[in-house]
Amino acid sequence: MFDSIIQKDKELLIFLNNLGSEQWDSFWLLITNQFSWTPLFLFIFYLIFKTFGLKKGGFVIVSLIVLVTFSDQFVNLIKDSVERLRPNNDPEIQHLLRHLNNPQSFSFISGHATTSTFFSVFMILLLREKYKYIYLILLFPFVFAYSRLYLGVHYPIDISLGILMGVLLANGYYFLFQKVCNKLFV
């Protein structure tokens, strides 16, 4: 059964990846680059300082740095434990994919999907009472994660479980964050 799931995962990736075309390649290469999202991050930082002020806002920013660092290292631990080849390195399917870059690290789970979802859900939990449109930030992890399928560097399961992991981590981190904030900023 597990082999069947893995095979369907590969087939779905091949299908999704081959929907791409050269005219869109530069767009998706831009989307997958985390630095391309700098305006979004600056806007979020603005909302944080506007909502929480300088002192607590600074604490939130430091917490975000810890969040991203933890998420990245946690994902790397999983990748190095599971050791699933990236699709672009899988001899069984690499010739069937359009791939525009060739990362050599392992595939499971997607760091892009995990960290962007973790960040976005955490921001929603922090800012939802003040900004009703903050939920639009969920477009970020979905578009960011899809770029990894388009580029042929992750499987759909890597992306799906990365998103799930991001949601779980964000909720846990938010719970801890609230406890710390209640003690520091009474």
From TrEMBL:
Asked if Membrane is a keyword of the record, the answer is yes
> TM segments?
27-49, 58-78, 106-126, 133-153, 159-177
Family annotation (Pfam families): PAP2
Instruction: Identify the residues that the record assigns to the Phosphatidic acid phosphatase type 2/haloperoxidase domain, covering every copy.
Output: 60-174
Q: Which key words tag this protein in UniProt?
A: Membrane, Transmembrane, Transmembrane helix
Please identify the protein, giving its name as recorded. Phosphatase PAP2 family protein
